[in-house]
Amino acid sequence: MLRLVALCAALAFALPAAAQSRSDAEAWRAAEQMAASIAPPRIPARTFAPRARPDGRSDTRPAIQAAIAAASRAGGGRVVLGPGVWFSKGPIRLASRIELHLQKGATLLFSPDPADYLPPVKTRWEGTEVFTYSPLVYAAGVEDVAITGEGVIDGNAKSGFHLWAKLAEPDFQRLRRMGFEGAPVERRIFGQGTHLRPPLVQVFGGKRVRLEGFTAKNSPFWVNHLVYVDEAVVRAIRVESHFPNNDGVDVESSTRVLVEKSHFRTGDDSVVIKSGRDLDGRRIGRPSAWVLVRDNDMGGEDGIALGSEMSGGIHDVFFTDNVLRKGVSAIRFKANLDRGGTVERVRVRRMTIEAFDTLFWFQLNYPGELGGNFPSTYRDIVFEDFRVERVGTFFDAHAPANAPLKDVTLRNIRVGEAKTPLVLENVEELRLENVVLGAQRMDGFVKSQAVGARP
């Protein structure tokens, strides 16, 4: 492993900046055009109100589901939850051409008993398909679906699911083994007596999806999970959820997605891009592609992340004009030797960052838990125009020797304070252009760096 305090002047050379900038400019234009072309959900302008009293005690789920069913029979419409606490003894299941609208002052509060979220439904749990506890708000195989309004979706701070973080390992290890070995999905049933926590909101297969305006809190697991979705907008939501694994938004095996103008205070990553785990992810083979994440305020343990479930591939992903507050790693890219998959054409720019232990963290060589030898490939990644207050380590990268991290550019990045500049293990074609750490400017090119000693 090489720890570099400064790049040797002999490594520096003039880069073809104009050509590189022109190519990146074209990529950003394509991303903006993609976002502008995302079609909104096509939902009729009809309103349906559940016939229930939102007193926080009475089970309003039957009334909410009846309103959704009535709207669906009519060809679609908006189901409106007015002010009050709408207690739901079990999951809310959405249908095509339905908008669930939570007015200001409305709280959709879910019951704390995990048994209320059975029977099992088909979902994806940390990248492996499975039949298990239902997401609290669940939409499967839908078109034209929205969740909107200024109200609150509350997974319940007293939920029994919150105790399962320490109980789940035997179950998720068994599920991972089943996915790795290709067991039929119909045999992967994890119901009563198992401990896989569900997400708060999940769309599992969808087209034209919108999540906008609401606040999400007390999620059992991932907070907003888009799986197999094409054309989705997540806009102006607030996530205030600090239980284990509370990622703000997980975009998994989804395409043409915009996440913007949202506020994240989470127990894990703010926004994550994924595409399935191990053989199961490679078998399904659906990448996440053409995702734009912009103008968000991120305060998670990690800011933005790719992986580690990325076996289906990730490409053409863009992050711009986000504020990252404090945490462990601002930008974290992950994989292990069971994964496989390729991540490429990632662009990150105009980021304002306060204080993190690590600014850029590539951990691509985690040992395979199941004995696989499928190294992942990360390449063609550009970070530019960053303003950072302070970090412990500036750039920390570890990759397998037979699949090095390739073609990474750091351009126009200014850090007020960094204790450790570079930690490199199996990195090729690392470019630094106008990188300033404190009073030290770093410009140069690392053609190839395997495991080495401190210079």
Task: Give structural attributes.
single chain; mainly beta; 9-stranded parallel barrel; 3-stranded mixed beta sheet; 31 strands; 12% helix
Detailed description of the structure:
The structure is a single chain. This protein is mainly beta and 455 residues long. Helix content is 12%, strand content 51%. The chain has 4 helices and 31 strands. The protein has helices spanning 17-37, 61-73, 169-181, 278-284; strands at residues 2-4, 47-48, 55-59, 77-81, 84-88, 92-93, 98-102, 106-110, 121-125, 128-132, 137-149, 152-154, 189-190, 201-212, 215-217, 224-235, 238-241, 249-252, 255-260, 263-266, 271-274, 288-294, 297-298, 302-306, 314-320, 323-336, 342-366, 377-398, 405-425, 427-437, 440-449. Strands 16-18-21-24-26-27-25-22-19 form a 9-stranded parallel barrel. Strands 9-10-13 form a 3-stranded mixed β-sheet. A hairpin with a 2-residue loop joins strand 9 and strand 10. The longest helix has 21 residues, at 17-37. The radius of gyration is 22 Å and the shape is globular. The relative contact order is 0.11. Residues 5-21 have low confidence and may be disordered.
